[in-house]
Amino acid sequence: MVSAWATANELVLGQVKVNDKSNEITAIPALLTLLDITGCIVTVDAMGCQTKIAAQIIDQGGDYLLAAKENQGHLYEDIVLFFNLSQQSQFATVTHTGHQTVNGSHGRIEKRQCWVISGEESLAFLRNYGDWAKLQTMVMIHSERHLNGQVSQETSYFISSLTNDAQKILAAKRSHWGIENKLHWGLDVTFHEDDCRVRQGNAPHNLAILRHMALNLLKQEKKAKGGIQAKRLRAAWNDDYLLKVLSG
């Protein structure tokens, strides 16, 4: 199942079932067709880093931030090499911006650094860069996490139609994880989705729709105290509260 998640509103906007003999590459365009993404930033994992998907996002009036990984072949290799060369010269010869955030809680410290490079000469370093609709920037984000004396590091690379604004792009990348932290995790904890044994026919798709609808309604109910699971139990026990949730 491929879902669209609006980070600002914390709402599921739609979902499309992946065909048994296909994958997310065919489901993502179908899902995008259902949405009005005018003026929106669409973030997609590496599976969706496809020229046709980028073109569709632009045609529908949005901007894209697409993850590039080893499965993208030359694109990933070229981005990594160009950033390595640029770092050696401390970005002196390229148009770039940088931004850093540091956050911490409960003994955990997370540091994120983002560098964004733009310019026709820089982008031309990427083989077949002209195949990407409105490609304006390439991005490198380095994450460092300190917890219990252990340090973990990760460097990720992206291409984007956004302008050269490292702060904005880093914020978009961080908000991307809302679909994991606020949707998938919530569905598992509150609705025990991962434990559901329904597997046949259209039942999994239909149940996913109902869970998404329920989660959307519970998130929009702001007056009751407690988390989503507490609100769900209250709706099951109290018909008046249930009607209040259903009325939006």
Describe, in plain words, how this protein is organized in 3D.
It is a single chain. The protein is α+β, with helices and mostly antiparallel strands. The chain has 2 domains: 141 residues, no CATH class; 48 residues, no CATH class. It has 9 helices and 8 strands. The strands form 2 sheets. A 6-stranded mixed β-sheet has the order 3-4-8-7-6-5, sandwiched between helices. A hairpin with a 4-residue loop joins strand 1 and strand 2. Helix 1 packs parallel to helix 2 and helix 8 crosses helix 9. The mean pLDDT is 87.
In short:
This protein is 40% helix and 26% strand. The chain is an alpha+beta fold and 248 residues long.
Number of strands: 8
Number of domains: 2
Look at the structure and give the mean pLDDT. 87
Q: Whole-Å distance between the termini? A: 25 Å
How many helices does DSSP assign?
A: 9
Helix content bin: 25-40%
Radius of gyration: 21 Å
- Which word captures the global form? globular
Give the class from helix and strand content and strand pairing: alpha+beta
